[in-house]
Amino acid sequence: MIKTKSQSKNWRKLKLGEVLELKYGFGLTENRRSSGNVPVFGSSGMVGTHNKPAVESSGIIVGRKGHVGSVNYSEKPFYPIDTVYYVDQLKIPGDLKFFYYFLQRIPFQKIGSDVGVPGLNRDIAYGLEIVIPENITEQKRIASILSAFDDKIELNNKINQNLEQLAQVIFKEWFVKFRFPGHEKVKMVDLPVEASAQAGSELGKIPEGWEIKNLEEIVEIEYGKGPASKDLKSKGYPVYGANGIIGYHNDYEFENPQVIVGCRGVVGSLFKTLPKSSITHNSLILKPIAIEKFYLFYLLKQSNLQSIVGGSAQPQITIKDLSQLSVLFAKKEIRNKFEEIVSNLEDKLFNTIYENQKLASLRDLLLPKLMSGEIRV
User: Fold this and answer.
1) Dihedral sign, CA of 173, 176, 177, 180?
2) CA pair distance 175, 329, nearest whole angstrom
3) pLDDT tens figures, 181-206
4) Strand 375-376 relative to strand 3-4, pairing
5) Is 307 within 8 Å of 286 (Cβ atoms)?
């Protein structure tokens, strides 16, 4: 049962340093990581995997440099790198998962900036006064309520990954292996070796009626013009850069999803944007003329975008570079069948994303109330 209280009872005031120790992460550069399933955490969250954990238990990860004050949690043994602190046990009896959520309320990013110290200073953090429920069972109940939201969000993310993988499997089966509906009745014809390699086809023959086209024949390409970094907000409509969503804004440029390619920074990245979004100048927007949107997206996923990266001092992809990319272009009827199937998958994907946004908003609304004792469980 959840009850609302005007003030907390049986809650204890402590210093953060009395409750936990922020331990330094370990040096592990990307080129030293071995293949494995141990999550590697940096200040931006999970940044890769390794074959051996540095911490043999679950734990909290707090950003020390870069994304200062970010808070993540690993349910299994993990490897925190040297841009983070980690917490694998408490100094007092308590629930570690509760403190994962509790730490999210602390504005760590302001601690160092307030005193001119770069990064998160442990000694300053240890001096922070906190108020927590003494009853461990209550801590566990609070954590379980918030975890239920995160578990559902994680499940939805896995569903979306499966939907995208299904679309990719269909694309590869139809447009790379050429096993599309009715392929048995279609004649295969020779494709010049140069054109085959350029288009990324795995075979020397292609279905009759299919063509090699440059992107400029089937799409219009333009630079994004979204809001500057200084104008980004923590909530609102998503703003995309070359590495995905980089923030939010009060307004949006595009009502419908767009296909974008990173042209600066994370060069050659590929995204489908959410409806009602904006796109910064670090990405190129591909607007279909004679091609279907989702077919275009998965066509580009099979293309070697890195092959058109130019620039030596600063790698980039220009409109001219991208417009000259050659792709294998299927006949319209088979493209339409693919688009119909994938559009249904994309609708489910977008609906799941919106459900996650609502779940996250409700969780974020409950978190401060639960952690302050305003709502008791």
Assistant:
1) positive
2) 9
3) 999 999 999 876 555 555 544 557 89
4) antiparallel
5) no
3-state secondary structure of 273: coil
Query: What's at 12, amino acid-wise?
Result: R
- DSSP-assigned letter for residue 289: S
What six digits make up the tokens of 181? 């509906």
Whether pTM exceeds 0.70 = yes
11-134 topology per CATH: Adenine-n6-DNA-methyltransferase TaqI; Chain A, domain 2 (3.90.220)
User: How far is Cα 110 from Cα 61, in angstroms, rounded to an integer?
Assistant: 18
Q: Residue with structure tokens 């923590």?
A: 234
Domain ranges in the chain with CATH number 3.90.220.20 = 11-134, 158-352
**Confidence at residue 107, expressed as pLDDT on a 0 to 100 scale:** 87
Q: Which pLDDT score is estimated for 202?
A: 53
Element (H, E) at 245: strand 244-249
Average of per-residue pLDDT across 341-362: 94
158-352 under CATH 3.20.20.300, yes or no: no
Residue 68: phi and psi, rounded to 5, are -65, 130
